[in-house]
Q: What sequence folds into this?
């Protein structure tokens, strides 16, 4: 099997989930989030775009319901002992197959937790699941049950995150080396992702983000490539992934002439990032990191150019995005704890002036505070 963790690691994770299920009085957990399946069993696929469910019973039994294309995938990548297949057909009703599986497992009645917030479980699929199980059991939302446990990484997971951070640094170096007047965005991306591939890394959970010219003021991927002008801005937001564990970086690179306003924006980003990282301490609410960043931006006259969030958890996630729970915004009450991994991003977009500046990196929360996982300099990059 193609597993990236020892059996004892999976056993500890399952034990933690079972303990939380017992606390909530759940007879079973219906798992629809791919990252939950991967974390609990190693199951690695993008087959969640179709109907797929992993069942964990209160006595620790695991069973997967999926399509025929993923039967061997589950056997190759996971420790799931039982894999059931629902058959593709115009009148297929996999939610009925799920009910039959639950009946065989003897977990009807009582209360089952459901990961309703899952990219693969569309509203239509969720509605059919609820209808199929309406008179079979009581369903309760357990979307964050596994996510809350995943937010605190084990030593084995942290080792994977460190590898991802190493690859992210290599990717930044490669991208910067390929950047300059006349450079093609496609070539820059190829160097960036190539460094990750050559280092043994994976595709990230969403597209690597690149934008120059007006696109430098974007923090989302969009289609289309251009060549850099003699005087230009290039914004890169990307993540390296190692065994599906992510470490992200973000930089805005100045090509050619340096506008003095960019120097001020970069200084604000650097001060805000260091302030946010200093606030990332065990027991402190994640909202404190946002507040620290916002105070700096306001003091430096950049309050109108910042975003309403300044970061989020990183870990093992699958498409469509690498952002994990929880997110750093005003009032976020989640208390940081050792083992958390956060990507804190300082983003300034001055739409009126057509100027952008960003600065971001990934940190690990330790007993003494935030440990930066990137060795890349925070200095303004010019090409």
A:
């Amino acid at each position: 099997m193609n597993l990236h963790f020892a059996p004892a690691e999976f056993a500890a994770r399952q034990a933690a989930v079972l303990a939380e299920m017992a606390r909530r009085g759940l007879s079973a957990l219906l798992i629809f989030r791919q990252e939950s399946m991967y974390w609990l069993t190693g199951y690695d696929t993008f087959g969640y775009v179709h109907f797929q469910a992993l069942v964990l019973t209160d006595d620790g039994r695991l069973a997967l319901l999926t399509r025929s294309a993923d039967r061997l995938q589950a056997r190759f990548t996971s420790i799931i002992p039982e894999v059931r297949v629902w058959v593709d057909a115009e009148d297929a009703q996999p939610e009925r197959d799920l009910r039959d599986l639950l009946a065989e497992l003897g977990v009807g009645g009582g209360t089952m937790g459901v990961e309703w917030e899952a990219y693969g479980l569309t509203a239509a699929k969720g509605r059919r699941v609820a209808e199929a199980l309406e008179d079979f059991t009581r369903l309760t939302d357990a979307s964050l049950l596994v996510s809350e446990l995943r937010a605190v990484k084990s030593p084995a997971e942290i080792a994977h995150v460190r590898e991802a951070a190493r690859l992210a640094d290599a990717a930044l170096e490669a991208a910067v080396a390929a950047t300059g007047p006349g450079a093609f965005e496609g070539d820059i991306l190829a160097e960036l992702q190539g460094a990750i591939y050559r280092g043994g890394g994976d595709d990230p959970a969403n597209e690597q983000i690149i934008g120059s010219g007006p696109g430098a003021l974007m923090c989302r991927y969009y289609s289309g490539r251009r060549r850099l002008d003699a005087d230009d801005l290039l914004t890169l937001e990307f993540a390296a992934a190692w065994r599906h564990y992510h470490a992200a970086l973000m930089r805005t690179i100045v090509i050619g002439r340096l506008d003095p306003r960019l120097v001020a924006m970069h200084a604000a980003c650097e001060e805000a990032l260091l302030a946010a990282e200093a606030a990332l301490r065990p027991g402190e609410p994640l909202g404190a990191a946002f507040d620290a960043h916002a105070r700096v931006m306001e003091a430096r006259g950049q309050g109108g150019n910042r975003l309403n969030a300044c970061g989020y958890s990183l870990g093992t996630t699958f498409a469509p995005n690498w952002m994990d729970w929880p997110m750093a915004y005003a009032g976020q009450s989640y208390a940081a704890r050792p083992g958390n991994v956060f990507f804190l991003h300082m983003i300034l977009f001055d739409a009126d002036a057509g100027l952008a500046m960003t600065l971001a990196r990934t940190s690990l929360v330790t007993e003494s505070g935030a440990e930066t996982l990137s060795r890349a300099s925070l200095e303004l990059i010019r090409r």
Summary: The chain has ten helices and 15 strands. The mean pLDDT is 98.
